[in-house]
Specification:
The chain folds into 2 domains: 307 residues, Alpha-Beta Barrel (TIM Barrel), CATH 3.20.20.70; 91 residues, no CATH class. Helix content is 36%, strand content 11%. Strands 7-6-5-4-3-2-1-8-9 form a 9-stranded mixed beta sheet. Helix 1 packs parallel to helix 2. The structure holds iron/sulfur cluster. Iron/sulfur cluster binds next to helix 10, helix 11 and helix 12.
């Protein structure tokens, strides 16, 4: 895949929640303040025309459009009706996937009915049991949003809502978290590792111990969760685990965090600016900003942006350690934003490097051990050993990152 196939539309630049870990409002970037509050229909019209040109020229047959924010439910219902009509009538010979990611607090029957009518898949962000969710996902007055979100999730079942998105929180036990998600009765969810980088680590991560042999807090949490999930005969889909399993089995898959595919994701801001995926903003103020705007540029212009170049190719533009790591095809060097440090830019393995080695080794060994002996014997496979892989990446590198790629990765350093 060499094209951008997923466009995240920031239809509202403000939010009715004030989540403490939010990359837009509480981590390193305040540029949303200069954005209009809402995307205009004029911008949708121009974007649809340019997207049609892009799809025809690049022979794209599939496009995903994700309505996002801020909180996308601050946009009006009439705007959604108009936008879907504009996309489907302007962009020819393309299969669409319309999706929306909401904080859930305003999702009532009227919204669900509209999204069902417009064929927009709804996802809701939730952070586990009430006491934890309410610590992070709060209204501007500091009050937690759990009650509203659980009601929205419950209501969503009758409309086929099947996607909950959660950020891993080490303060919640995996068992408590898994049970909470199971209790919702929703058949699918995904988990994300927290945003953060070497100079702005997620809460609870100890800077001195990061990527040392015996410090793998996220792997330990995720392995416990994987075991609960695997042993549950009525388990929901957990996309993160599913993708790792598919990659271990050799499938061509992946996303911004995993695998070796290109990151064909772009963000359209409320004012029409076209940029890199917005969670990169947690690196530093303004890192994603450029002068590319849909009102004055073609979508192809984004491929000329130097941050987009690194982001799009991020699973192939990696640090030396990744090139010498035996789980590189699965980890892909991790999410670009998690590789950042002020002194080396993106020329680092992810802050979750050792966690990924431990988790992937565990899942790989679990798959191998579940195979019948004769099948295992016929495969050219051996069990993965966490310590050995860590040794491997810490030895003198055999394969080195190409000089031009290294310069691109380092060029985002704040000290060069
Ligand atoms: S586990 Fe570490 S070294 Fe291996 S590919 Fe991932 S980030 Fe790179």
């Amino acid at each position: 895949m060499e094209n951008i196939i997923s466009f995240v539309l920031k239809v509202a630049s403000r939010c009715n929640l004030n989540c403490s870990y939010c990359y837009m409002y509480n981590l390193g970037d305040k540029t949303y303040l200069s954005q209009p509050k809402f995307m205009s229909i004029e911008t949708i019209i121009v974007f649809a025309e340019k997207l049609n040109d892009y799809c025809q020229k690049n022979n794209s047959k599939f496009v995903q459009i994700v309505f996002h924010g801020g909180e996308p439910l601050l946009w009006s219902k009439d705007h959604y009706r108009q936008a879907i009509q504009i996309f489907t009538s302007t962009i020819k010979n393309v299969k669409f996937d319309f999706a929306l990611q909401s904080n859930g607090v305003s999702l009532d029957d009227e919204w669900y009915t509209l999204f069902q009518e417009l064929n927009i898949r709804v996802g809701i962000s939730m952070d586990g049991p009430k006491k934890h969710h309410d610590r992070y996902r709060v209204f501007h007055n500091g009050k937690g949003s759990y009650e509203q979100v659980i009601k929205a999730i419950d209501r969503g079942k009758q409309y086929g809502m099947n996607n909950i998105l959660s950020v891993v929180n080490l303060d919640i036990s995996p068992a408590e978290f898994y049970q909470e998600v199971k209790n919702t009765g929703i058949p699918g969810f995904n988990i994300l590792l927290p945003d953060g980088h070497y100079d702005n680590l997620p809460e609870n991560v100890e800077k001195q111990r990061i990527n040392t042999l015996h410090y793998t807090p996220y792997a330990d949490w995720l392995i416990e969760m994987f075991e609960l999930w695997k042993n549950d005969s009525d388990r929901p889909v957990i996309r993160f685990f599913q993708t790792i399993i598919e990659l271990i089995m050799g499938e061509q898959t992946g996303d911004q965090m995993l695998g070796r595919l290109k990151n064909g994701v772009a963000v359209l801001e409320t004012n029409g600016n076209l940029e890199v995926s917005d969670s990169i903003r947690a690196c530093y103020e303004g890192i994603t900003r450029n002068d590319i705007n849909i009102h004055t540029h073609a979508i192809e212009a984004l491929h000329e942006d130097r941050l987009f170049d690194v982001f799009f190719n991020s699973h192939n533009m990696v640090n030396d350690k990744c090139l010498n790591c035996s789980i590189y095809d699965i980890c892909g060097g991790g999410f670009l934003g998690n590789r950042y440090s002020n002194d080396k830019g993106f020329d680092n393995p992810t802050i979750y490097c050792h966690d990924m080695i431990k988790l992937v080794s565990h899942i790989q060994n679990d798959i191998i051990n579940s195979l019948p002996e004769e099948v295992y014997a016929s495969l050219d496979a051996s069990e993965a050993n966490y310590e050995e892989i860590v040794d491997e990446i810490n030895e003198e590198v055999v394969v080195k990152t190409d000089g031009e790629i290294r310069n691109k990765l380092k060029s985002f350093s704040l000290v060069c």
